[in-house]
Amino acid sequence: MEIRVPEVGESVHEALLAKWFKKSGEAVKKDEPLCEIETDKITLDIHADAAGILTTAVSEGQTVSIGAVIGSISEQGGVLSSAAASINAVSPGHREEEKKSVVSSPAVRQEMRDKGIDPGTVTGTGKGGRITLDDLFSRIEGSSRRTETEAPENIQEVKPAVTPADIPQPQPPNTAPQPEPSAKVKDLDSVRSEEAPKYAVRPEERRPMSPIRKRIAERLLTVRQQTAMLTTFNEADLSQIKALREKHREHFQNRHGIALGYMPFFVKACVEALRQFPIVNASIDGEDLVLHHYFDIGIAIGSEKGLVVPILRDADRLRLYEIEQAIVDFVEKIKTNRLAIADLQGGTFSISNGGVYGSLLSTPILNPPQSAVLGMHAIQDRPVVREGQIVIRPMMYLALSYDHRIIDGREAVGFLKKLKEYIEDPEELLLEG
Q: Which of 314, 315, 417, 421 could lock onto 297 through a cystine, CB 3.0 to 4.6 A?
């Protein structure tokens, strides 16, 4: 049974085999995760369709095409798939050369090519026998020492003729005392000798960017180059939302089985503000302005591989508990590499909560082709003036980044002000029975 890279989207043509969870020759169970692959959009696991013995055909770190065979599962344990058998049929010399190209990073391979070093002469000490930069430098230093040792054997000693004038005449011995080096000079020399080894080696690590990180970098650069992005700021008092959460916390937990967070309130408030400022929910397509009469809200979620923005479809039709449950499901999918391309496609507006990482204030960046994104931040108890009195309230800074090509400052500031009103007085608007 062949193991192939699955199709994950029309625009995805290749994937990086990031990790094998099982080694070649090990027994696997049906539906057990076999490996992890990364595309420029998502990370996902490939599971076994049947129980048997695994045979891997592609090493970790290699990029393969969608639909390519990366291994096989033999129910008998001794039968290889046609793909694995064809790999075994390759000449030993070619397989050895391919192995050497795999057991080193692109940086190391480039360095070996520049120095004219045969990979077979370098012993790899990295994981799986990979050749690291330290291994390569050790090989180069070893060659240098051997060259210095062997060099005198190849030098022919030439003894020039000596004339009487060249013979040095004896000089009277110098009995004058020689000056001792000052303590300052000696101390400086000792410091240099002690510090020299410390700074002789400056360790560095070079690793290739993952497909997701490459894609993120490309999109962020595109946003900076092709949009007129501006950001406007405001702040909101979360006293009423905190009171609602405390009042209905136990009832909400018992009824829906999940805790109520702040994000559902912001999603509902954004939807209502977008109704009043539809240009913030629009996008540009060529020379056309596209007004979306639906509300697909993207929720930015951070992961080890990078930031992803799954979409809440028709957020205006979702209740508070449905929004909270959808976000919980997205987080679980990301952790278990089960997020699908369909979960990321589309979206008319996005929300990013940097406050979960402690950010007090930041400028969120657009998620094209969307034209606006809301940035939430950390909640802080701060002194504010209410009815002429200085009181302590839980405050949050809000940031709206927008594409100034289609959204003017009036609409952006108005949207953020209306959002602030809904957040500070949410009971009539947001409370559900």
A: 315
